[in-house]
Specification:
Distance between the termini: 32 Å
Domain AMP-dependent synthetase/ligase: 50-422
Number of strands: 28
Strand content: 15-25%
GO molecular function: acetate-CoA ligase activity; ATP binding
Shape: globular
Protein name: acetate--CoA ligase
Strand order of the largest sheet: 2-1-11-10-12-13-14-15-16
Helix content: 25-40%
CATH architecture of the largest domain: 3-Layer(aba) Sandwich
Number of helices: 17
Largest sheet: 9 strands, mixed
Region (Disordered): 1-25
CATH superfamily of the largest domain: ANL, N-terminal domain
CATH class of the largest domain: Alpha Beta
Keywords: Acetylation, ATP-binding, Ligase, Nucleotide-binding
Structural class: alpha/beta
């Protein structure tokens, strides 16, 4: 861990703007509008209040199709589509509190359906479009789905074979103008609906979102968030992502992942920015062209994408104009120091890491625009968030001093805190202990108040009396010019207990072999010392990762040791 700072003070106007505004969750709530009778509804805060305030002509969504299509929806357009969708639900007898699942790519209908369902008081649960039939079915059964919005292709392959076995699924809406038997075509239904709909006055504690997160074993967990979460979504976008009204903003996360919902739909709209949505998957030249052509000002992406860009080298970015960029941020897994510095080299701006989970619902710890960045650090807790490093022994939870590694914990009570694991009260109760929410992540706080990620508690390697966090070893390996990505696990050893084993992918122009393996081990020993450096390095074309971009260390370990692989529903199809 390097104490070096990258100092990038915020522009004076931004600093002054924040100093003049009150902070805290109560103040954040006052920055929203709410409904006349005291209700709070995410869709109202994201769309209707902006239209009523005279901003209806501002672009809300710039949609870029795979085929080169560019389609712009204003706030008025998107609000009208959301209202039409809400009418479609009501016309088919869908009532407040029922659960609607989304199974579609990044297409305009997905955004209208999300906001229209929330407007109607219906719970939204997004799914990755790349899921196969079994993950889709499992989540819809756990979530007691009554409505599904999908495409004809997805329905035919992933839902139709088992739909008759799920009688609670009473309505399937198919995007487009045609639908298979037993389904409803969304196009004609929307066209016939009114663009005015009275938003349901949901209570702040009414369920709004249901996200699923996978564990190492068993079925996925359903994480419940309420309409009150919008207070955190809006405020953390303002504080952690520096979102300002009128900004052009691009969040590359898919809405099937919690980031793509919280910060790819809700937070940007609440902050009245213009969202860029790209239907296509990662393509280096396409991404650079989008940043340039759309004049993106705030860009929120993932370490995996950054490392893929690094793998192509800085020359690939030459000739592009990135002068509109003001703020770069990353989330999904820890951001290696090399990625932070690479952003400075290529874009003239560092990437700002931040940390949160599906369970927290929003960003908790971040490197904000006003802070100096310590490359590799997660940042500091946002206003209203109290974080600590704790040691858990039975029912006892003890807060540890700066410099010691322990479990990252948060004081409960922020607006976007999950309200339950659906149908699993005992599992939910286990993550709250001693007045803390226990995250399951290991971290360290330095004397300056910055938090440093060490690893998941179950990823920690114990070797010859040393506790080794895989992220530290992976970061050292990535510093080598040949390494694009790295994943580190512990493998059993009779003498040391565990030894460190690394899996790496290489950048273009480098060849795997014994000589490079020895060079990498020597590099790691020099950086980390012989007790921490990997004893073995294996070269891979790809590393197994989730569809949200996280490297699955547990899967590498399971395959290495012949253990059960657990839930693989979020595994990328080409990483098996």
């Amino acid at each position: 861990m390097t104490p070096q700072f990258i100092s990038k003070p915020a522009p004076q106007d931004a600093t002054r703007r924040r100093q003049q505004q009150p902070t805290g969750w109560e103040a954040a709530r006052r920055r929203l509008q709410g409904l006349a009778d005291g209700g709070l509804n995410i869709a109202h805060e994201a769309l209707d209040r902006h239209v009523a305030a005279g901003h209806g002509d501002q672009a809300a969504l710039i949609w870029l199709g795979k085929d080169g299509t560019r389609h712009v929806l204003s706030y008025r357009d998107l609000a009208a589509d959301a209202a039409r969708f809400a009418h479609v639900l009501r016309a088919h007898g869908v009532t407040r509190g029922e659960r609607l699942f989304l199974l579609a790519g990044r297409i305009p209908a997905l955004y209208a359906a999300t906001l229209g369902a929330l407007k109607a008081g219906v719970v939204v649960s997004p799914l990755f479009a790349a899921f196969g039939p079994e993950p889709v079915r499992a989540r819809m059964e756990i979530g007691a789905a009554s409505v599904l919005v999908t495409t004809a292709a997805h329905y035919k392959r992933k839902v139709a074979p088992w739909r008759a076995e799920m009688p609670g699924l009473k309505l399937v809406l198919i995007v487009g103008n045609d639908a298979p038997e037993g389904c409803v075509a969304l196009g004609p239904a929307m066209a016939a609906a009114s663009e005015h709909f009275d938003t349901v006055s949901t209570d702040p504690e009414d369920m709004a979102l249901l996200h699923f997160t996978s564990g190492t074993t068993g079925l996925p967990k359903g994480v419940v968030h309420v309409h009150q979460a919008v207070v955190a979504h809006s405020e953390t976008g303002r504080l952690a992502l520096d979102l300002r009204p009128g900004d052009v903003y691009w969040c590359t996360a898919d809405p099937g992942w919690v980031t793509g919902m919280s910060y790819g739909i809700i937070s940007p709209l609440c902050n009245r920015v213009t969202m860029v949505v790209d239907e296509a998957e990662f393509d280096l030249e396409r991404w650079y062209a989008i940043l340039e052509n759309e004049r993106v000002q705030v860009w929120y992406t993932a370490p995996t994408a950054i490392r893929m860009m690094m793998r192509a080298g800085p020359k690939a970015a030459e000739g592009h104009d990135f002068s509109a960029l003001r703020f770069l941020a990353s989330v999904g897994e820890p951001l290696n120091a090399e990625c932070v510095l690479w952003g400075q080299q290529v874009f003239g701006l560092p990437f700002h890491d931040n940390w949160w989970q599906s369970e927290t619902g929003g960003i908790m710890i971040a490197n904000t625009a006003e802070m100096g960045i310590k490359p590799g650090a997660m940042g500091k807790p946002l206003p209203g968030i109290e974080a600590g490093i704790v040691q858990v022994e039975g029912e006892s939870v003890t807060e540890l001093p700066d410099g010691e590694i322990g479990e990252l914990a948060l004081r409960p009570g922020w607006p976007s805190m999950m309200r339950e694991y659906l149908g699993q009260p005992e599992r939910y109760a286990k993550v709250f202990k001693g007045g803390w929410y226990l995250t399951g992540d290991l971290a360290m706080r330095d004397p300056d108040g910055y938090f440093w990620f060490v690893g998941r508690a179950d990823d920690l390697i114990k070797s010859a009396g040393h506790l080794i966090g895989p992220f530290e070893v992976e970061s050292a390996l990535i510093e080598h010019e040949a390494v694009a990505e790295a994943a580190v696990i512990g493998v059993p050893d009779e003498t040391a207990g565990e030894l460190v084993k690394a899996f790496v992918t290489l950048k273009a122009g480098f060849e795997a072999g014994d000589a490079l393996e020895r060079e990498l081990r020597g590099h790691a020993r020099k950086r980390l010392g012989p007790a921490v450096a990997p004893r073995e390095i294996v070269f891979r074309e790809k590393l197994p990762r989730t569809r949200s971009g996280k490297i699955m260390r547990r899967l590498l370990r399971a395959r290495e040791l012949g253990l059960p692989e657990g839930d693989l529903s979020t595994l990328e199809g080409d990483s098996k």
